[in-house]
Design a protein that fits this description.
This protein has about 650 residues and is an alpha/beta fold. Helices cover about 25% and strands about 25% of the residues. The strands form twelve sheets. An eight-stranded mixed beta sheet has the order 15-14-20-25-30-31-32-33. Strand 34 and strand 35 form a beta hairpin.
Amino acid sequence: MTTSKVISADEAIARIGDNAVVTTTGFVQSCIPEALHAALEKRFVETGAPRDLTLIMCAGAGDSKGLGTGRLHHEGLLKRVIAANFGRMPKVAQAAQDDKIQGYNLPQGVISKLYRSCASGSPGLFTRVGLHTYVDPRLGGGKVNTKTKEDLVKLVEVDGKEWLFYKATPINVALIRATSADPLGNLSMEREALTLDVLAQAMAAHNNGGIVIAQVERIVAEGSIKPKDVKVPGILVDCVVVADPPEMHRMNYGVMYDPGLAGEVRVTVDSLPTMELDERKIIARRASFELPPNGVINLGVGAPDGVANVANEEKVTPYLVMTTEAGAVGGVLAGGSSFGSSANAHSILDQNQMFDFYHGGGLDLTCLGMAECDSLGNVNTSKFGGKLNGCGGFIDISQNARAVVFAGTFTAGGLEVAIEDGKLRIIKEGRARKFVKQVEQVTFSGKYAAQKAQPVIYVTERCVFQLTDHGLELIEVAPGIDIDRDILAHMAFKPHIHSPVTMNPRIFVDQPMDLLADLLNQNLKDRVSFDTQQKILVLNLEGWSVRKKADIADLKKVIVEACEGIGSRVNIMINQASCRIAEDLYDEYADMVAYVTKHHYGRSARYATSALTRQKLLEALRRRGLDTHVFANATEAYDFLRQQAAAE
């Protein structure tokens, strides 16, 4: 006869002993086993037990005001925390900052995948995630205070390359959440917005001889859950707790239940609200010009999430697949308390599987926020202004996305701007500088990204910077902005300045930008003309950007069609003034140039006002055996072509 595993929350929590290592699920405000957290807090307040727990968790799981893991702040309850995010449990974060508990702030994806290491009996995880950030043992090893002594991260070398080894911490208790459970403990998640890591967490605790406590919404009859719908099999589950009252099992703190987010129904999704043309929309609009059609995107919180609104306004959304690190693929990403989930999602992956995808380079672009940035392009989002916020998935995502856009206001705290006649005017400067001499903590390493030739730009309302191998370069300035008065005066360092151009004026006019035409290069053919008098094909790439491989393919097609239309080899003049080529695409661009040179060009000359662009172009082209020239201006380039023609 089967013995039911269904017991009360108090009975389940009573099984947790002192010094236990406890892991819990939840993502920001979603999928949190609130009844279990509340029962654990109640038991400790009333009895003083259990004591000295180690808490392991991925993303923040709480409302930042005391719910979720914020309930576990009572002195003596925790002795150690291993987490990606501390911002959702500020009192626990303060205890760590006050050296009252040990603390580690590790990347969210690393912790997520460490559950699988624990489950499989592996000693830990090898990955390159975290190299050259504060997680690297050379920069602190992820320890948040002086009380924390044990090294959980080691630097190792494999086949001549640096790797980090993250030590797995055996888990004694897993607090997880599902929708339905049968008396055997089989769990299904049909009314949950996300699946997160519940299977890996349960397996990690069970295989270590620990206990698995599952909070559910309801009990169903034995055998009523279809085998493929069982997310966690009953062999892994020790206790099942029905949330009481039902509010303890809200989908998230702001939504009791939304069938669209659960994927139970397809819903009619209202259009995202049109944003007011302010500094936040300016940033989102400029960042949107980096979107790769047919690409996979991740957006961070804050200024970056405005990109979704702009993409919707510009009718670009159907050409993109948005994802969240929590596991949502496609659909309309939710915001607010539902952040991390998606209405009408294409699919929901386990969080650790999504980070496999991210770590392996599956993201075409990420747009993330920034709290601080320095001259080397380092970014800090984890510890600033006296607060321990944590990295969340920032390191996992930023280090492995093909291209990165950091987005945020130029200064913080009271910034006021006006957009008048297509120009930006600073009314009141923010109190805090973001561009500092040295970031307080390195959450993103500019030097490491430059070594990998990772395309990175930094978008603000008044200017845009680009990461180069010699640090930050100012490449764009908003109309109406004075570089000395509005930019350099509010930075703790001077960026490299060569030939910055004006930001696209369409960004500053409150009407549609025709963004899709730019992203799909629909007007690229208009950049080609034939000078019949001098018999020179003119290719004007001024201000154009090579952001993705498809841009190179589109340009090649336009050039080939123009040359074939002339019917013979043709001398060509290429204007590459302010033409930006993504750091990782110079070689592919050079391959295209080599092809058209071999098959279609006679003489060619190109010019670029930026010395850095000229240098990189020359290096890439000469690696293809092309004896080419990149001049500083049009006059020099035209003179070269005339001299060559006269010599023939």
